[in-house]
Amino acid sequence: MYLVTFRLDPGEYDEEFHKLNDAIQATAEDTDGYLGKRTWNAQESEEVLVIYYWKSLDALGSFGADSDHKQAKQRWTEWYDAYEVTVTEVVEAYGSGFGADADPPA
């Protein structure tokens, strides 16, 4: 499994951002190998972390080739003050007490 951590400092979102963002999320959900996402908001700042779960690098690469996704990456300065993407391979995951939240979100 692979995790893509999208760390962002939001700027101003307009109608075009929301349309593009919704299209990108729909594409992710339709991509074979997409396992889900979780979002966290920092209490002390406006920083947001979105963790996307992927079955394989091939699945992630397929999503990355999407034209809407490419367009959003080129236009990031219109909507974010800063961003960072980290791709991580999960070697092992374990724990207890989160119930259904212990697994990647569906």
UniProtKB/TrEMBL annotation:
This is Heme-degrading monooxygenase HmoA.
